Amino acid sequence: MDKMELRLYDIQAESEAKELVDIFLEYYPRSPWPPTKEKIMKGGVVYFRAFYQGQQIGVTGYSVKTPNLAETVKTTIFHAFRGKGLGAILSQAIEDECKRIGIKKVLSTVYYFNHVMVQIKLKQGYTIEGYHPDHEAPGFHEYSLGKILK
Predict the structure, then answer these.
(1) Residue 38 and which of 14, 44, 63, 87 are 20 to 30 A apart at CA?
(2) In this predicted model, what pLDDT tens digit does every residue of 102-139 receive, in sequence order?
(3) Is there a contact between 77 and 90 (Cβ–Cβ < 8 Å)?
(4) Do 33 and 45 contact (CB within 8 A), yes or no?
(5) Angle between helix 86-100 and 115-123 (nearest 10)
(6) What's the Cα-to-Cα distance from 129 to each of 51, 110, 142, rounded to whole Å?
(7) Terminal CA-CA length for the chain
(8) How far is residue 97 from each of residues 6, 61, 102, 147, measured CA to CA in Å?
């Protein structure tokens, strides 16, 4: 199996922040979270392009919440690469990145309708720590899944 490569976005570059906005608007059209170039450029989240076998197959990122806790964010597999097991590989890659920087626990919130990612996380040893009805907006629910890194 080839390794997933994570390449850091330069969120201070307007073009790269705009690229992320466009991806989030395409892949999260139901989300009430309004991504803007300005919000992304403010920082607080480390974003990566995900490459597999030399092709960009998606994006991912994390936000450090405490010295020991990070939350993964907006992990996305592009349409052309779905159904090939790459979501699990990308999920593991961002988890490994968090571990590399010294994080001891990873949190992931997953939209209630994303059953595939919930199953991936459960298979990877995450536990459901909460269900948040109307979390981002009325009718928009999320699961919180967490994993202690060893």
Answers:
(1) 87
(2) 999 999 999 999 999 999 999 999 999 999 999 888 88
(3) yes
(4) no
(5) 50
(6) 30, 12, 11
(7) 23
(8) 9, 10, 9, 14
* Cβ atoms of residues 49 and 7 within 8 Å: yes
Can you list the domains of the chain with their CATH numbers? 5-148 (3.40.630.30)
Reported in sequence order, the residue ranges of the chain that DSSP labels E, i.e. its strands, are 5-8, 46-52, 55-66, 69-77, 105-111, 127-137, 140-148
The length of the chain in residues reads: 150
Query: pLDDT tens digits, residue range 37-53?
Result: 999 999 999 999 999 99
* Amino acid, res. 74: K
Structure tokens belonging to residue 54: 């030399």
